[in-house]
């Protein structure tokens, strides 16, 4: 299985002004934007870390997911949430010949934690031996910062500030997550049963 981002979070969606206010950086100086690239990198790192911990896509973008078999042919749970649309479903055989599946043959079952690709009939289309299915979908709470739940937005700012404050430290353990951030994101974490087979 391979999940890939097809589109990136645009710079305009990142809350640089809010982050500067959170850090209490001075304003009104002629070189007030000199740190913007650094602040942007910490915001992107915080977004990525929280998405990895929660399985939630915070800002809307498109993804493609390639898998070699359905976990359950009656409905395949998607790897992240929330998902707003299935954009494309295609099957490829071992010779890389592609069959695009008509949208009338499947539907999205929305769920805050575990959205599912469901067949219109009883089963999803069969994946040939040695072949793969590719699902292209749109996920995220929305295109703008204001579309995100306020506690997740606060967690991103707090974690980005933590990265900024300790940017010169090399002794922090990998995956370091401050307690305040962990408590804010806890209710969004997906409970995975049987290796992710929960539906």
TrEMBL record:
It comes from the Bacteria. CDD domains: gp6. Transmembrane segments: none annotated. InterPro entries: Phage_CHP (IPR011738), Phage_HK97_gp6-like (IPR006450). This is Phage gp6-like head-tail connector protein. The lineage of its organism: Bacteria, Pseudomonadati, Pseudomonadota, Alphaproteobacteria, Rhodobacterales.
């Amino acid at each position: 299985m391979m999940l890939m981002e097809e589109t990136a979070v645009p710079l305009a969606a990142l809350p640089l002004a809010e982050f500067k206010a959170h850090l209490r950086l001075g304003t009104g100086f002629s070189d007030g934007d000199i740190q913007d690239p650094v602040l942007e990198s910490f915001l992107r790192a915080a977004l990525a870390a929280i998405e990895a911990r929660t399985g939630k896509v915070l800002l809307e973008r498109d993804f493609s997911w390639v898998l070699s078999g359905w976990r359950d042919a009656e409905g395949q749970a998607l790897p992240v949430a929330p998902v707003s649309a299935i954009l494309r479903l295609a099957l490829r055989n071992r010779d890389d010949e592609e069959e695009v599946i008509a949208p009338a043959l499947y539907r999205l079952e929305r769920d805050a934690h575990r959205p599912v690709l469901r067949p219109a009939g009883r089963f999803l289309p069969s994946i040939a031996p040695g072949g793969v299915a590719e699902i292209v979908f749109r996920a995220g709470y929305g295109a703008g910062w204001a579309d995100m739940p306020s506690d997740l937005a606060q967690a991103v700012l707090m974690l980005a500030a933590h990265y900024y404050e300790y940017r010169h430290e090399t002794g922090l353990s990998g995956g370091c997550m401050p307690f305040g951030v962990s408590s804010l994101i806890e209710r969004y974490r997906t409970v995975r049963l049987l290796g992710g087979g929960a539906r």
